[in-house]
Amino acid sequence: MATADVGLTTTKAPFIEQAQQSGQTYIEQPYELYSEENQETWRRLYERILPKWRKFANSRFMHGLEVLHLKPDGIPRLDDINHFLAPLSGFKAKAVSGYVPAYLFFDCLRQRSFPTTITIRDGQTLDYLPEPDIFHDVAGHVPMHTDRVFSDVLVRFGEVARFAAERANGLAGDEKEHVRCLESNIKAMARFFWFTVEFGLIREGDGLRAYGSGLLSSLGELEHSLTSPAVQRYPIQMEWVINQYFEIDHYQPLLFIVDSFDHLFGLVDELEQWLKDGKLDNVSPGEPAVNAEDLKSFMEA
After folding, report:
1. For the residues 107-112, what does the mean pLDDT come to?
2. Where are the strands (E) in 118-253, listed by range?
3. Which of 118, 138, 208, 278 is the most buried (most CB within 10 A)?
4. Average predicted confidence (pLDDT) for the chain
């Protein structure tokens, strides 16, 4: 079957397989390869979640949808998105062929680039996401990048990751202990990112709204996160976040609330100070696991 016939369906796209086999992490978006089924999947995803966004998404996200001109018609071109993003925050969506090791991902953020998946989930299973897709990355993440303060949070987080790599590679003494501390640092940063950028809630007006992309790109969990009595929602505290494990295969039972994006920026400053003070060297065990590729990316930074 020809590549064009298969389209760019997640886990099934020959174009992506070829890019990965040739070692290409950063690629171009081959827009002509999207099939009509791919386009229809985007339309269905967008149309059904739009009413949930209007009810549960934060106002900065909704403004981002407007200024990016994201519409339900079809999959957006990353070049068009970048054209609108540049004057607002300097960020750009950077097409990737798949998984990006942790340090490289965070360093892209430091340079105002967001690694963006170009494939889209199978239209037969709209709610099952085996790995990130363009709907999660573009519709979930990118509207928030139009906000200058939030985008600065991402840059600041990338700077913290860079400091973690420099710290790990600059220490003298027992190498095994350095690796253990670095694994703990990466785990702490991953947890912070998860409970803020991916699954964060924010106070807005007289209630709560979602700003985390994992919530904003999930039809079911977006409403569940803000209405279900099964979800625990607490004001964010650093010691809780860095020691709280998470699992990715079910709705999150515990979420944290920030007061504003300025508050979130201050928390990233606090995260860096905790790193400098060694407070991230011994966080609690549990998920997420730090894989060899992520660890290597920091050690070779």
Report:
1. 98
2. 201-204, 207-210, 232-235
3. 118
4. 94
Mean of pLDDT values over 15-32: 97
pLDDT given at position 172: 63
Q: 112-119, long-range: CB within 8 Å, 24+ apart, which pairs? A: 112/151, 112/154, 112/155, 114/141, 114/142, 114/145, 114/154, 116/78, 116/142, 117/10, 118/8, 118/16, 118/27, 118/29, 118/30, 118/78, 119/8, 119/9, 119/10, 119/11, 119/13, 119/16
What is the DSSP track for 24-52? Answer: -SB----GGG--HHHHHHHHHHHHHHHHH
Instruction: Give the span between the Cα atoms of 282 and 166, in whole angstroms.
Output: 18
Q: Model's pTM, two decimal places? A: 0.94
Confidence of residue 5 (pLDDT cuts 50, 70, 90): low
Is a pLDDT exceeding 70 seen at residue 2? Answer: no
Helix (H, G, I), strand (E, B) or coil at 201: strand
- Enumerate the domain spans of the chain: 3-299
Give 258's Cβ-side CA count (13 Å radius).
23
pLDDT reported for residue 185 = 97
CATH class of the 3-299 domain in this structure: mainly alpha
Looking at residue 141, what DSSP letter applies? I
